[in-house]
Amino acid sequence: MAERVRKAFSVRRLPGFATITMICFAALYAPIIVIVLYSFNAGDSVALWEGFSLDWYSVAAQNEQVQEATLRSLVIALWASGIATTLATMAALGTTRTAKFPGSTLIYVLINQPLMVPEIVTAVALLIFFASIKVATGYSGLAYLILAHAAFCVPFAYLPIRARLEGMDRVLEVAAADLYATPWQTFRRVTLPLVAPGIVAGAMLAFVISLDDVIITEFVKSAGQDTLPTYMLGQLRRAVTPEVNAISTALLGLTVLLLTAFFILTGRNEKSA
Predict the structure, then answer these.
(1) Single pTM value for the model
(2) Is residue 210, in this structure, part of any structural domain at all?
(3) 196 near 164, Cβ under 8 Å?
């Protein structure tokens, strides 16, 4: 009697799996597709199609408020991602290149705290903290937004960097130490080049998180410090036009591009680790 060959279990063979998958994808991407399509609407309505046109992209590009908000968003995201990635790299090195000690788990939890606490709670805490500093110093510049975004983005940069360090073979680092290299020389010539893809991936993820943030920005910003997401929120409160759809589509395109690069880098890290 021929032996039965047991097939490996696959969730795709479960009844209704394809249907549920299609429903989930439709729920996730149908609203996004609608926004993208209506960004090319020739009319003023966001619900009535009146023909294909690129006019709203031109209107958005010539809008001085959009230009200022976009530039401000990029400046904040660049500074915040740079600060967050630097802190995350140091934290990842400190938690992966040292022996286990009492409290190491607590430190790991504290680093990732913004991921576990609702963003509104973090925003309120930052608002209270920076408000007292604003009153004491009289300064109300972009530094508060940059520091607030950096604090929130640290765990997002930390996770891919830590994953890269944990997946690295420490043979080269041990060999460098055996050849009398100082800790700094080992880090600069061995560890840093190997962890660089993880650092770049963490920086891109932090940049995207900062660029898209609304809640913390809305709480911490001062007058005249709208970023692109908060400007869009303000426009939605006043009047909804396809200009908002055009801005959303452009922001979506940039985010997708950066996240695609992030996942490509992450995939290469896993293969090379």
Answers:
(1) 0.81
(2) yes
(3) no
